[in-house]
Write a structure and sequence with these properties.
There is one protein chain. The chain is of the alpha+beta class. Helix content is 44%, strand content 12%. It is built from 10 helices and 6 strands. Strands 1-4 form a two-stranded antiparallel sheet. Helix 2 runs antiparallel to helix 9 and helix 4 runs antiparallel to helix 5. The longest helix has 20 residues. The two termini are 13 Å apart.
Length: 234
C-alpha cells in the first residue's frame, strides 16, 4: 500500500520509521536528480511501501541482504521531466494539478525546477511526522550582513522528544534552497543546476549517521518495521 493509506487507518508513525522512510526518499531523489529527472508529483499517494523478503537483518546505510527488497517505491512518472533533454539552465513556470505538489515557487509565480520535488518530499515527511498535510509560514530572518531576508518553515511545532535538529534542518534547507544552494539559485536561475542537487547527500548522511551512532535505534527500527509489516498485512 501507499504511505497515504497509513494515516487513513488512524495510525501514527514512530519517529524512527519516519527517519527510515526519509532516508529512502532522499536516496531515490538524489539518484533521480543526478540523472536529470524531476518527478514533479512527489506525494504520499505515489510512494508505495515495499515489504519484500522475510529475513530481517540489522539495518545499515548500504542496505544489506533483505533490505534491498524493503523500503519505498516511487510510482507515476506521467508528469516527470528529463532536464538533460532540454537546454542547460532550463527552468519552468506554471502550476501542478495536485495541491500537495504546488511548491513555493509555483505559489509565488516564479521559476522552478528540482524545488518541486523538494517541496513534495517535505510534504510527505510532514504527513508522516504529524499525521497532517504540510502548512507553512514565512518568517523574517537577520542575515550575517545585518540585512533582512525571509525563510519558510512548517507551522507545526516539533515534539521535544524528537530529533528536532535533524527535522528542522531538513525542512529549513529543502523549503529554502535559495538560502543554501549557492548564488545561482539565490539569483533566481539555476533551478535545475547541480547546486540544488548537492543539498540532498548531506541531509541523507546526517540521518544515517544518527542511526549508525545509536545501535539500539537500528535494532528498534528493525523491530518497529517488523511490527508494521504484520499490522499492514492484518
Amino acid at each position: 500500500g501507499a504511505i497515504a493509506g497509513y494515516h487513513k487507518n488512524g495510525q501514527q508513525m514512530d519517529e524512527l520509521i519516519v527517519m527510515y522512510y526519509t532516508i529512502e526518499q532522499l536516496t531515490m531523489m538524489e539518484g533521480m536528480h543526478r540523472a536529470g529527472i524531476i518527478h514533479t508529483d512527489w506525494r504520499a499517494e505515489n510512494l508505495l511501501l515495499r515489504n519484500g523478503a522475510e529475513e530481517w537483518e540489522e539495518w545499515a546505510p548500504w542496505r544489506p541482504g533483505s533490505w534491498q527488497e524493503k523500503g519505498l517505491m516511487l510510482i507515476d512518472f506521467g508528469e516527470a521531466v528529463d532536464v538533460q533533454a532540454l537546454p542547460t539552465g532550463t527552468s519552468f513556470v506554471g502550476e501542478s494539478v495536485n495541491e500537495e505538489s504546488q511548491c513555493l515557487e509555483m505559489q509565488e509565480g516564479s521559476e522552478w525546477g528540482f524545488q518541486v520535488d523538494y517541496y513534495g518530499l517535505c510534504g510527505v515527511v510532514h504527513r508522516m511526522l504529524f499525521g497532517k498535510p504540510l502548512k507553512i509560514e514565512r518568517v523574517e530572518v537577520k542575515m550575517q550582513d545585518s540585512s533582512t531576508d525571509y525563510m519558510y518553515q512548517p507551522c507545526e511545532e516539533y515534539r521535544q522528544t524528537w530529533q528536532v535538529d535533524l527535522w528542522d534542518r531538513l525542512f529549513r534547507e529543502l523549503l529554502n534552497p535559495h538560502q543554501y544552494a549557492g548564488d545561482a539559485v539565490r539569483a533566481g536561475s539555476g533551478c535545475t543546476s547541480s547546486a540544488l542537487t548537492s543539498l540532498l547527500d548531506p541531509l541523507r548522511v546526517a540521518f544515517e549517521e544518527y542511526l549508525v551512532c545509536n545501535p539500539d535505534q537500528m535494532t528498534n527500527l528493525r523491530l518497529l518495521l517488523m511490527k508494521q509489516t504484520m499490522m499492514l498485512l492484518c
